[in-house]
Amino acid sequence: MVRRATAPPEQESVAGCHTSVVFSDDRQWAGHLGAFVRSGLAKGQQVQYFADTTPPERVLRALTDAGIDAAGAVTSGQLSVSVAAQTYLAGSGFDPDTMIGLWHDAVEGAWASGYRGVRTIGEMSWGARDVTGADRLLEYELRIHHEVLERLPLTAWCFYDRRLMADEYVGVMASAHLTHRGEPHVAPRLRVAPLADRPGLLMSGSAGYDTRDAVAAAAAVISSGTASRTDLDLAALRHLDAASLAVLTEAAAGRPGGMPLLVRQPPSPLRRLLQLFPELESMVEVVDR
């Protein structure tokens, strides 16, 4: 079982703890990197950088060029630069459950070493490649908000290099964050994001065949939820096809302990389904506000 630590009072606002950072050149990358690391070191946090395509020595050189004593921070243990392939992508591939557990362990380890929390950057370009578990990255980005960031003093910036990923992919992934820095990203056909103030998800746009991966990620979050009540806000969802509807209702039926899914302002197809199958009423509660 994952250990649940309690965040100290000085934790930053949850909405600002999980940020997508989109850039398209090395200057922008270095600027975001320097600002993030400098702030973390000054706040007494342990800072971690997980590289994908960037050599670790280049990360350290960029920090040094920015006037940061990177070598000293590495020596003291406050800063680490590692490669994703040797950390959370090692072994059988990426697994959200394992990664969520590792964050709890990392924060506990940082506290034990006297740090005030953990500050991390992850290069996310591996998610667009044929990496085992990459299809669960969106699920992870959605789950980390309520399962990690609301509970721990962890600040995570996810780096999206537009030179390495398609615009549509960047749009989907960046939209799963509550805050954004850097270049604007393309609005995805279906946006899935965590709710800022309560456990649950917001789905907006159009859910169909071409967005089935995003729907599957939302369903995984719904079925794996640990909260007694989970909201699914569909007020801004323009279209929901039959296949997506089936995936979401199956996820609602699979919630642990039979806890109902609270659906806000669902589209008409879902309302008709509930009328045709009244047994679903114990799994889905509709709220029209």
Give a quick rundown of the structure.
The chain is an alpha/beta fold. It has helices at residues 26-42, 56-65, 70-76, 96-112, 137-149, 167-174, 212-224, 242-253, 268-276; strands at residues 18-23, 46-51, 79-83, 118-123, 154-161, 179-182, 190-194, 200-207, 230-233, 237-240, 261-264, 284-287.
Overall description:
There is one protein chain. The protein is α/β, with parallel strands linked by helices and 289 residues long. The protein has 2 domains: 13-186, 3-Layer(aba) Sandwich (Rossmann fold); 189-289, Transcription Regulator spoIIAA (2-Layer Sandwich). Helices cover 37% and strands 22% of the residues. It contains 9 helices and 12 strands. The strands form 2 sheets. The protein has a 6-stranded parallel sheet, sandwiched between helices. Strands 7, 8, 9, 10, 11 and 12 form a 6-stranded mixed sheet that branches. Strand 11 (261-264), helix 9 and strand 12 (284-287) form a beta-alpha-beta unit. Helix 4 runs parallel beside helix 5 (137-149).
Which key phrases capture this entry?
alpha/beta, Rossmann fold, Transcription Regulator spoIIAA, 9 helices, 37% helix, elongated, disordered N terminus
Layout of helices and strands:
Layout: E1 18-23, H1 26-42, E2 46-51, H2 56-65, H3 70-76, E3 79-83, H4 96-112, E4 118-123, H5 137-149, E5 154-161, H6 167-174, E6 179-182, E7 190-194, E8 200-207, H7 212-224, E9 230-233, E10 237-240, H8 242-253, E11 261-264, H9 268-276, E12 284-287
Parallel strand pairs: 1-5, 1-6, 2-3, 2-4, 4-5, 8-9, 8-10, 9-11, 11-12
Antiparallel strand pairs: 7-8
Helix pairs in contact: 4-5, 5-7, 7-8
